[in-house]
Write a structure and sequence with these properties.
Layout lengths: L24 H51 L13 H38 L30 H9 L6 E5 L8 E6 L5 E7 L6 E11 L11 H15 L4 H8 L5 E5 L2 E9 L3 E10 L2
Antiparallel strand pairs: 1-2, 2-3, 3-4, 4-7, 5-6, 6-7
Length: about 290
């Protein structure tokens, strides 16, 4: 340290300058107070930073300055003659540091509590309330629906086709598979000009008979195909179909098939309807048999 009286560099130990003999107690105390202030400020700032981050470091540094101002002069003052039991400088320094640490912890905890209480309303206002957790409803498993077999009423498609194939003489016949929502189709075509036809339509659900059609495209104008071509085959189709499916309708449908007047009747579980349609050179003669439902 530097003597304030002569400017010489003197030791920090002792009470007088070894050059001029001046009292250096005040200089020693001042240097000690500055050292204490720097040390306590740095120490408390480090402790506060570890506890509370940047804010804690600032609080610790401020507390170090306060401790230096409050306890520094008392710690390094020169004892009065009557203070025989005055503790040593080291003892007084230890006591001051302990009190400073206790004061720091109490102050820091209080400061943290106050700042936390002030921040809670702001955080509550800024963040929306958490959504209420509700137990998700577990959907019940869908019931397994087993379709009941459809009870077929009326004639069965396969049975009707089998009986017609045993009766009709077809130039060509064919069963077309079900498609586009419709059932199967049986067709029997006869005659040299292939104008005599019988069709059996299956129900869309399958298995049953939607209707049976006996058709003859009757050429009433003479031409390469001949006048009333395939009339024999058309009559055989009408007779053979009615004989195995609706024999009671044969007499009336035979007469109707030769004319142009519409006829409708019921026989043997079928509704039979005869229609006649005139074209440029062809009369369409058609008997439609629909099973009674």
């Amino acid at each position: 340290m530097i003597c304030s009286n002569c400017g010489g560099k003197i030791s920090a130990i002792g009470q007088v300058c070894q050059y001029c003999g001046a009292d250096k107690t005040r200089g020693v105390a001042a240097n000690a107070i500055v050292g204490l202030g720097l040390g306590s400020t740095i120490f408390l700032a480090l402790v506060g930073g570890m506890i509370g981050g940047l804010q804690g470091a600032g609080a610790g540094a401020a507390l170090g300055v306060v401790v230096t101002i409050l306890f520094g002069p008392k710690l390094f003052r020169r004892p009065r003659p009557d203070e025989y039991d005055e503790p040593s400088t080291a003892g007084r320094m230890g006591g001051v540091l302990l009190r400073a640490m206790a004061l720091f912890l109490v102050g820091f905890l209080g400061w943290s509590y106050l700042t936390g209480q002030a921040a809670e309303p702001e955080q509550a206002a800024a963040s929306p309330a958490p959504a209420r957790m509700e137990r998700a409803a577990v959907p019940a498993p869908a019931p397994i629906i087993v379709p009941k077999p459809v009870a077929l009423s009326g004639p069965r498609f396969d049975d009707v086709v089998r009986r017609l194939r045993g009766t009709l003489s077809c130039r060509r016949d064919k069963i077309t598979p079900a498609m586009y929502g419709d059932g199967r189709l049986y067709g029997c075509i006869s005659g040299s000009e292939e104008t005599a036809k019988v069709f059996v339509n299956e129900t869309p659900a399958g298995g049953g008979v939607e209707n049976i059609k006996i058709m003859w495209n009757d050429y009433f104008r003479d031409g390469p195909w001949g006048l009333h071509a395939d009339s024999t085959e058309a009559g055989a189709h009408l007779y053979g179909t009615l004989a195995v499916l609706a024999p009671d309708a044969w007499p009336r449908m035979k007469a109707a098939f030769a004319g142009s007047a519409p006829v409708e009747m019921a026989a043997n579980g079928y509704t039979l309807r005869y229609t006649w349609t005139r074209g440029p050179s062809v009369h369409e003669r058609l008997v439609t048999m629909t099973p009674a439902r």
